[in-house]
Amino acid sequence: MGTMHYLLLCAVIFLPETPAFPIQLRPASWSSIDLEKVKRYLDTFFPILSKTQHLSIEERIKQMQKFFHLTVTGKLDKETEEIMTMPRCGMPDVAEYQTFPGTPRWEKTHLTYKILSYTQDLPRKKVDDAIRRALMVWSDVTPLQFRRVDSGRADIEIRFARRAHGDGSPFDGRGGTLAHAFAPGDGIGGDAHFDDDEKWSDINQDVNLFLVAAHEFGHSLGLAHSNVRGALMYPLYSYQNPQTFRLPADDRRGIQKLYGKKPSNS
Q1: pTM of the shown model
Q2: 125-149: string of b/e by CB count within 10 Å (b at 16+)?
Q3: Rounded CA gap, 252 and 260, in Å?
Q4: Do the beta carbons of residue 242 and residue 133 sit within 8 Å?
Q5: Within 10 A of 81 (CB to CB), how many other CB atoms are there?
Q6: Assigned CATH for 19-85
Q7: Which residues are identified as catalytic?
Q8: What is the mean pLDDT of the chain?
Q9: What distance in Å separates the CA atoms of residue 25 and residue 6, rounded to the nearest whole number?
């Protein structure tokens, strides 16, 4: 893939409660600030499960390092700390490609979407086009079809918002989480929100709306994160040319596992 500068991505809202961090001895070389930072990161993105509840902090760091394909040391080295301090999405990471717990999916193939509000960074027509093309990323490889509506409820409702915006998951200003989406379901399920404190773009500068929206809609359809670098559902954002973008095989396998392949006669 060559050198790729990862920035940040989204949060998908599908967070089960996680147990409290167990009491463990602090490595002698770490300050209390370091320990709190590591605990907070691991509890959020690599939460304790029944099979990991007795792991030391070093072993849990190794899990995180394996996920991000870092050198597995169990230590808070430079490359590990860089990942931990990188703005990113707010959902837990996974060790392999998977869908959400319980495998939520839409029980229909014809879905509606509605754009409730816009960013002033782009003309409305460019926002409309980016959203339409981001949804096509998924409809091109599955039986799913998307139709835009302007009134009534839609399956996927899209809006740009700042800070607290009524869903219990406030945005954090420019440079933090880019967006978040909700797993398929009633009410807010499937909806996608974009942080309007970011600078949105349709080219290779600032944050490309098409790429982030395509990732978010993967969550809206039921996909969790992939640990495959270069996959659209990888937790960290990196720029790819929207004009030549093709859905990577890892993402295609994931979405087709949920909805099947696109019929050959369509």
Answers
A1: 0.81
A2: ebbeebbebbbebbbebbebebeee
A3: 10
A4: yes
A5: 15
A6: 1.10.101.10
A7: 216
A8: 84
A9: 33
Contact yes or no for 239/204 (Cβ under 8 A): yes
Share of the chain above pLDDT 70, in %: 81
Query: How far is the C-alpha of 60 from the C-alpha of 147, rounded, in Å?
Result: 44
User: 74 in helix, strand or coil?
Assistant: coil
Give the mean pLDDT of 165-192.
89
Domain 110-259 has CATH 3.40.390.10: yes
pLDDT at 21: 31
Residue 78, number of CB atoms within 10 A of its CB: 7
Rounded Cα–Cα distance for residues 191 and 4 (Å): 29
Helices 209-221 and 249-259: crossing angle in degrees, nearest 10, is: 30
Tokens for 182? 């909700």
- Count CA atoms closer than 13 A to 66's CA, side-chain side: 11
On whether the CB atoms of residues 215 and 222 are closer than 8 A, the answer is no
3-state secondary structure of 131: helix
Residues in the chain: 266
Q: Among positive and negative, which fits the CA dihedral 82, 94, 214, 122? A: negative
**CB pairs under 8 A, 24+ apart, for 41-46?**
41/84, 43/18, 44/90, 44/92, 45/88, 45/91, 45/92, 45/93, 46/92, 46/93
Ordered by start, the domain boundaries in the chain are 19-85, 110-259
The owner of tokens 């981001």 is: 134
Written as six digits, the tokens of 15 are: 């967070």
Neighbours of 217 (CB within 10 A): 28
Contact assessment for residue 169 and residue 13, using Cβ atoms and an 8 Å cutoff: yes
